[in-house]
Design a protein that fits this description.
Layout lengths: L6 E4 L3 H11 L3 E4 L5 H6 L7 E4 L9 E3 L3 E5 L4 H6 L1 H6 L1 H7 L5 H6 L2 H7 L5 H8 L3 E6 L2 E6 H4 E3 L2 E2 L6 E8 L6 E8 L9 E9 L5 E9 L6 E2 L1 H7 L6 H14 L10 H30 L1
Parallel strand pairs: 1-3, 2-3
Antiparallel strand pairs: 4-5, 5-10, 6-7, 6-10, 8-9, 11-12, 12-13, 13-14
Helix pairs in contact: 10-11, 11-12
Length: about 300
């Protein structure tokens, strides 16, 4: 099929983009990478009357790393993120997640903000953003606002962003603990396919090897990326041995209620979530212990 007729405008500033969104409302859609929107338009699942191209807006292409946060402009390509040494050093979980995103060609087009706004519950970047509770910076013609990632995702491909708003930046917190580890894993029918289930975790350990902080979450098993801060809180003060990890995995399995589809039953997705959470917690623990060993 071909897309329905539409008008196209390329803008050079965030203010110009917001003005067009205010003028056209729900009839306008932003485009940068177009990795998801263009196929949806081709199938006429999306029929915007106007496309507003924001890829050449300089402030949306910035990537900066501070001591306490990593800031990604909404149109930073995923291939740029995965090659940036600052991201690799400060937020390895994001690098670990990007390895699972489609294929090289996919990441060459995909943008950080596009993945978040598209809000596919099986997508990797939204899961990382939710687990770390990244801050999302939204702009419209009247100014800017912020929303935590855990409040942004409402339903499959539905978010809290208003039609006149543009996602400008994603602010990922950087943990200050020296001994941290993270991991991301997923299971799909083939590499590059949508995940049947995914999981990620990040932990911090003290000098004795006890957990001082832990976050985790699962994807593709709920309508939105499912962060599980309550399970992470239960691990604080514990050694992350096999028993503790198995207990956390069982807790996660009890907190989710996956639906089945033609790809996998709900019970199988629950099983995958339990297995994946155990894997990523063990891998994150091992990475943190290696950091501990290197620092000693």
């Amino acid at each position: 099929m071909k897309a329905a007729p539409f008008e196209y405008t390329r803008v050079e500033s965030l203010a110009e983009a917001c003005a067009l969104l205010a003028e056209h409302g729900p009839d306008a859609k932003l485009i940068a990478g177009g990795q998801s929107l263009v196929p949806m338009m081709a199938m006429r699942l999306a029929r915007p009357a106007r496309l507003v191209d924001i890829y050449r807006v300089p402030e949306l292409q910035a990537l900066s790393a501070e001591a306490d946060e990593l800031v990604l402009g909404a149109t930073v390509r995923q291939c740029v993120i995965e090659r940036d040494p600052r991201v690799r050093a400060r937020l390895p979980l994001l690098i670990q997640a990007l390895r699972w995103v489609g294929h090289v060609q996919t990441r060459n087009r995909n943008t950080a903000g596009g993945s978040i706004v598209h809000a596919d519950p099986s997508a990797e970047i939204p899961l990382v953003a939710s687990v770390l509770n990244a801050t999302l910076e939204l702009h419209d013609s009247s100014g800017g606002s912020e929303i935590p990632a855990q409040e942004f995702f409402l339903a499959p491909m539905v978010t809290a962003i208003a039609p006149e708003q543009c996602l400008a930046r994603i602010r990922f917190p950087i943990w200050s603990e020296a001994r941290t580890g993270s991991a991301f894993d997923e299971i799909s029918m083939r590499h590059g396919d949508f995940a049947l289930a995914s999981a990620c975790a990040q932990v911090a350990l003290d000098a004795e090897g006890r957990c001082t902080r832990a976050v985790m979450g699962v994807g593709s098993v709920s309508p939105i990326p499912h962060a599980l801060p309550e399970v992470g809180e239960q691990l604080v003060g514990m050694r992350l041995d096999d028993a503790a990890i198995a207990g956390a995995a069982d807790a996660v399995a009890g907190l989710i209620d996956p639906e089945g589809d033609l790809h996998a039953s709900g019970e199988y997705r629950r099983h995958l979530a339990r297995v994946l959470i155990a894997r990523v917690l063990a891998a994150a623990r091992d990475q943190a212990l290696q950091t501990n060993k290197a620092a000693a």
